[in-house]
Amino acid sequence: MQKKLKLFVICGLVGLMSGASVLYKSFAKNQALQASANQPQTSVAQANSTIPPQSAMTGWLGFATTANKNVPFLPLLPVNADAQVALFSNAWDQVKPGTSLVGIAGGIKQQVKFRRSQEELFGCDNNKTKMATFTAAKRFALGPIWLLPLNLAKEAKSLTFQALNLSEVPTSVLPVNKRKPSVARAWKAGGATVVMQKQSKDQVRLSILINSRIAYNAVEKKSYMQGGDPEPVKFPKFDGTPGIPFPIGAFRANAKSAPMIVFWQPSYEGQGYSVVASVKGKMQKVDENAIYFCAF
Q1: pLDDT 10s digit of each residue in the chain, 296 long?
Q2: pTM
Q3: Residues 6+ positions from 53 with CB-CB distance below 8 Å
Q4: Domain range list for the chain
Q5: What is the SS3 string spanning the chain?
């Protein structure tokens, strides 16, 4: 096997899956995020009730699994023939098997049942990562899945990202002279617009607009590793660039709420995600995780 993790450019990722940067300097530092992400607000000891531990965001972020070990590489895709949803977390050890939640993704809303919390296959060389896994009546489309208690899921829905013509982005965010595919990309999901624009050879500005008003801004930087690829960020197909987020999913709690955006954020030896959502009327990062995937 090649020692270098090959980062694939996934040209049709938004259509297939239609979440400040986790910067890579040493992946061992990033692994601390795995322990801190999805930490319960309620004690795990209380999880013997029908309600599992709460996370920093409303509900929990899981990902669809695949039963096919030979499936082409896709971000954050666990291989599991016995579970339909996997959640990267170590906070579910005391939850009772069979505890029910609702899974929402790709226009599907269905009951999911907690299966177990233990190390499962993820990445190369039979690597294993701690996950909470769930079963469902049918498999979800590949991508992120929003897990909610039944009482919060009634009006919740998934949103589909669509590529947005740069001419439709407000000039307050993207000046006319920057409306070029070589330096900018944009997507729309519900009332949210995501704009990524190149600032320098290794920096990208991420802007999120809610109903055409700027609600979130962050400058993301490409990460480098000794022996890695020193090339600059390349637009328009920058998905798979270490350290640079890429939108892979969006969800909404109800018709009046701001969409929650899920980004994939790869590193040289891992897979990561971040979630930006509205908290007391302000868009901010509410969850993130970095998971070891394969040795560089």
Answers
A1: 333 333 333 333 333 333 333 323 333 333 333 333 343 333 333 444 455 555 568 999 999 999 887 776 778 989 899 999 999 998 898 899 999 999 999 889 999 999 999 999 898 888 899 999 999 999 999 999 999 999 999 999 999 999 999 999 999 999 999 999 999 999 999 999 999 999 999 999 999 999 989 999 999 999 888 776 678 999 999 999 999 999 999 999 999 999 999 999 998 888 999 999 998 889 999 999 999 988 76
A2: 0.82
A3: 40, 41, 42, 43, 44, 46, 47, 91, 92, 95
A4: 13-292
A5: CCCCCCCCCCCCHHHHHCCCCCCCCCHHHHHHHHHHCCCCCCCHHHHHCCCCCCCCCCCEEEEECECCCCCCCCCCCCECCCCCEEECCCCCCCCCCCCEEEEEECCEEEEEEEEEEEEEECCCCCCEEEEEEEEECCCCCCCEEEEECHHHCCCCEEECCEECCHHHCCCCCCCHHHCCCCCEEEEEECCEEEEEEECCCCEEEEEEEECCEEEEEEEEECCCCCCCCCCCCCCCCCCCCCCCCEEEEEEECCCCCCCEEEEECCCCCEEEEEEEEEECCEEEEEEEEEEECCCC
Residue type, 205: R
**Structure-token match 């300097």, residue found:** 25
